[in-house]
Design a protein that fits this description.
The protein is of the alpha+beta class and 241 residues long. The protein has two domains: 97 residues, no CATH class; 113 residues, Trna Endonuclease, Chain: A, domain 1. Helix content is 20%, strand content 26%. The strands form five sheets. It has a six-stranded mixed sheet, sandwiched between helices. A three-stranded antiparallel sheet has the order 3-4-11. The chain has a three-stranded antiparallel sheet with strand order 5-9-8, with no helix packed on it. The longest helix has 15 residues.
Length: 241
């Protein structure tokens, strides 16, 4: 997270407990980190019902002007309430101008063994953190055009890039064989490769089916780092896009 990320105090409307929140830093396709501008005049709202369009924000990179969609910032309160953090320039479904994100200094992580920069992620506290971690990882692999998928999968949240479909499953149950097969079938109809990210792991038959179909499976640990579960995922992690 860049040094220019904005930090604000956030008070939970449920328990009235106040916690500091630091805006996430998202990597633009041009390589420049961007940070959403938090709306200090609007109080955070508790997430009661999730609406697909409301879970995304549109940001314009201050370095290159490119617009990109990212998961809306959220904060998990210790009382169990999930808070949606207001972002300046985001006016709700149907009227969503692009907020110009703050430029942030590019981090300088140590290089990986193959010469790539070491992967940097976000700690996973909410479902949207899991989506952010998966998107960051796909960009690290070399998919610079990661975006929200046009169609929502049968479970979890879908991401897409050129020639790739990804499914992020933030539920507490292991992904099933049906989950993996549905992703594979959808990718086949779009002539794309696919990859699955899960927080809770995979059922035994799901792992066997993924090996048969050649679907890379990743487990998202609490730090937001995807861990390869099968050989296909390990090869993808080592070689990149």
């Amino acid at each position: 997270m860049g040094a220019m990320s904005e930090s604000v105090p956030v008070r939970c409307p449920a328990c009235r407990h106040e916690r500091p929140y630091t805006a996430p830093s998202y990597p633009c396709a041009c390589g420049a980190p961007v940070v959403p501008v938090l709306d200090r005049r609007t109080a955070p709202a508790a997430v009661v019902h999730r609406v697909w369009d409301e879970e995304w924000i549109t940001l314009r990179c201050a370095a290159c002007g490119r617009q990109g969609q990212w998961p809306r910032p959220e904060l998990g309160c210790p009382c169990g309430t999930v808070l949606r953090i207001p972002v300046a320039g985001q006016t709700g479904p149907g009227r969503r101008p692009a907020a110009v994100a703050k430029p942030a200094p590019a981090p300088v992580p140590a290089p990986a063994a193959d010469g790539r920069r070491a992967f940097r992620s976000v700690a996973i506290r909410t479902a949207l953190d899991a989506v952010t971690a998966a998107a960051l990882y796909l960009r690290w692999l070399g998919h610079g055009d990661v975006r929200r998928a046009d169609q929502r999968p049968t479970s979890g949240i879908g991401l897409a890039a050129k020639g790739l479909l990804a499914q992020v499953d933030p539920s507490v149950r292991p992904a099933s064989l049906r989950d993996v097969e549905c992703l594979w079938l959808t990718a086949m109809t779009e002539s794309s490769r696919c990859v699955y990210f899960s927080l809770a792991g995979y059922a035994d038959d799901a792992r066997a089916g993924a090996d048969r179909l050649g679907v890379p499976l990743f487990l998202l640990d609490p730090t937001g780092t995807p861990r390869p579960v099968n050989a296909t995922a390990a090869a993808l992690d080592a070689e990149g896009a």
